[in-house]
Write a structure and sequence with these properties.
This protein is an alpha/beta fold. The chain has two domains: 171 residues, Rossmann fold (3-Layer(aba) Sandwich); 156 residues, 3-Layer(aba) Sandwich (Rossmann fold), CATH 3.40.50.1260. Helices cover 37% and strands 16% of the residues. It has 14 helices and 14 strands. Strands 3-4-2-1-5-6 form a six-stranded parallel β-sheet, sandwiched between helices. A five-stranded parallel β-sheet has the order 8-7-12-13-14, sandwiched between helices. Helix 5 links the parallel strand 5 and strand 6. Helix 4 packs across helix 5, helix 7 packs parallel to helix 9 and helix 10 runs parallel beside helix 11. The longest helix is centred in the middle third of the chain and has 15 residues. The model has no long low-confidence stretch (mean pLDDT 97). Bound molecules: 3-phosphoglyceric acid (3PG). The site of 3-phosphoglyceric acid has 8 residues, from loops.
C-alpha cells in the first residue's frame, strides 16, 4: 500500500479516516484518549505540510441514519483541539461538501449517522471520496470493518494511502507474527474459548508456548480431566481444547497448564482468595487467578521468549486479591527482552493498572481488529489500500 508520508499533500484536501471511538463515562467525558493521541502523527504531518484537513470517525453504534446527540464527536473535537493547540471545527452536515482551507482541521460528525455507512453503500462512499484529493486510512481499530469511510471511500478516492498509525500497527503485528524471533510465546486469556477459538487455533500452529488464562484455561484444565469446581468453563469445547494441546505436543510445542490456582467461593470484590494446588480444587471453588508457582513458571517462559503476543488478563485482576497472576506476568513481559505486542480492551486496562505501557514493545490500538489480525484474517480496510496500490 501507499503511505501518507510519501505523498505530497500541500494545498490538497486530505481526508483521514481515524478511529476516535474512545471510552466515555456516563456524563460523556472521555476517560481514555490513547486513540486520539495515536492519530496525532498523521494529523500533524498533514498540517505541517499545509494540507486542508478533514477527519472522519465513527463513535459508538448509533441507529443507522439518525443523529444522536449522545454519540456526537463534540467531546473528541474539544480534546483534539487541546492536544493540537489549535481549534478543531466539528461539522454536522458534511456528506454533500464542506469548505476547508489549507492549514485548517475539520472533524466530520460521527460517520455512522449517515445511512449506508455500515453497509458500505457505493453512492455514499463516492460522495465521501469526492470530498478529498487524498484519502488516508489511519484507523487500525476499525480496519476489520468494510464500511463507507473505511472501504468504499478508499476505493473511489483519487489517491488512497495508509496513515502512520495504520502502517505502524501492520509493521509491528506483521513482524511479530510472520517472522517471529523464537521462542514465540502467546498469552491468550479471557472468559470464553468460544470467542477466541480461531485465535487459539491460528496461534497454536505458530507459537512455541501457548499460555492460556481465565475461563479459557479452565476449559483446557477440564479437557485434561483436572478438577475446576464451579469455575467458568465451556464444557462443550473440551474436545477442541484437547485437540489443541495434542497438536502442539505433537510438534514439540506446549500449552503450559497451571499447577496451582487462586480460588474464591463467590465472584465478588470482597471474595476471600485461597491459593491451592489444582488437584485440591473443591467442588464449590471458583478459579479466579493462576497460583504463585504457576506465575513463576510462566514468568520464566516469558523471560526466555524472543517474541510475546499478549491478549487477555489471566485472572480477575479488577479485584486485587485475584490480580497477582496478571501483575506478575505483566512484570515478566515488561522485563523480558522479547519483542512484545499487546492488544484488546482488558489487556490495555491491565497494562495501565500495572503501569508497564512503556516496556511493551508495541501496544495495539485495535480491539476487534487486533483479534482478527491474530486470527490471520484479511482486514478489508487494508486489503482495499493494497488493491489501490497494485
Ligand atoms: C473498536 O472500538 O473496536 C472499533 O472502533 C470498532 O468499533 P465497532 O465494533 O463498533 O465497529
Amino acid at each position: 500500500f501507499l503511505r501518507l508520508t510519501d505523498q505530497n499533500v500541500s494545498n490538497k484536501r486530505v481526508l483521514i479516516r481515524v478511529d476516535f471511538n474512545v471510552p466515555v463515562d456516563a456524563n460523556g467525558n472521555i476517560t481514555e484518549d490513547t486513540r486520539i493521541r495515536a492519530s496525532l502523527p498523521g494529523i500533524e504531518y498533514c498540517l505541517n505540510n499545509n494540507a486542508a484537513l478533514l477527519l472522519t470517525s465513527h463513535f459508538g453504534r448509533p441507529t443507522e441514519g439518525e443523529y444522536d446527540e449522545r454519540l456526537s464527536l463534540a467531546p473528541v473535537a474539544a480534546r483534539l483541539g487541546e492536544l493540537l493547540g489549535r481549534p478543531v471545527r466539528l461539522v454536522k452536515d458534511w456528506v454533500n461538501g464542506v469548505d476547508v482551507k489549507a492549514g485548517e482541521v475539520l472533524l466530520l460528525e460521527n460517520c455512522r449517522f449517515n445511512k449506508g455507512e455500515k453497509k458500505n453503500n457505493p453512492e455514499l462512499a463516492q460522495k465521501i471520496a469526492a470530498l478529498c484529493d487524498v484519502y488516508v486510512n489511519d484507523a487500525f481499530g476499525t480496519a476489520h470493518r468494510a464500511e463507507a469511510t473505511t472501504h468504499g471511500a478508499a476505493q473511489y478516492a483519487p489517491v488512497a494511502c495508509a496513515g502512520p498509525l495504520l502502517a505502524a500497527e501492520l509493521d509491528a503485528l506483521g513482524a511479530a507474527l510472520s517472522a517471529p524471533k523464537r521462542p514465540m510465546v502467546a498469552i491468550v486469556a479471557g472468559s470464553k474459548v468460544s470467542t477466541k477459538l480461531t485465535i487459539l487455533n491460528s496461534l497454536a500452529d505458530k507459537v512455541d508456548q501457548l499460555i492460556v488464562g481465565g475461563g479459557i484455561a479452565n476449559t483446557f484444565m477440564a479437557a485434561l480431566g483436572l478438577p475446576i469446581g464451579k469455575s467458568l468453563a465451556e464444557h462443550d469445547l473440551v474436545g477442541e481444547a484437547k485437540t489443541i494441546i495434542d497438536n502442539m505436543k505433537a510438534r514439540g510445542a506446549a500449552v503450559p497448564i497451571p499447577s496451582d490456582v487462586v480460588v474464591g467461593k463467590e465472584f465478588s470484590p470482597t471474595a476471600y482468595a485461597t491459593s491451592k494446588k489444582v488437584a485440591d480444587v473443591a467442588a464449590d471453588d471458583m478459579i479466579f487467578d493462576i497460583g504463585p508457582n504457576t506465575a513463576e513458571e510462566l514468568a520464566a517462559i516469558l523471560d526466555k521468549a524472543g517474541t510475546i503476543v499478549w491478549n487477555g488478563p489471566v485472572g480477575v485482576f479488577e479485584f486485587d486479591q485475584f490480580g497477582k497472576g496478571t501483575e506478575l506476568l505483566a512484570m515478566a513481559i515488561a522485563n523480558s527482552k522479547a519483542f512484545s505486542i499487546a492488544g484488546g480492551g482488558d489487556t490495555l486496562a491491565a497494562i495501565s493498572k500495572y503501569n508497564i505501557g512503556d516496556q511493551v514493545s508495541y501496544i495495539s490500538t485495535g480491539g476487534g481488529a487486533f483479534l482478527e489480525f491474530l486470527e490471520g484474517k484479511t482486514l478489508p480496510a487494508v486489503e482495499i489500500l493494497q488493491q489501490r496500490a497494485a
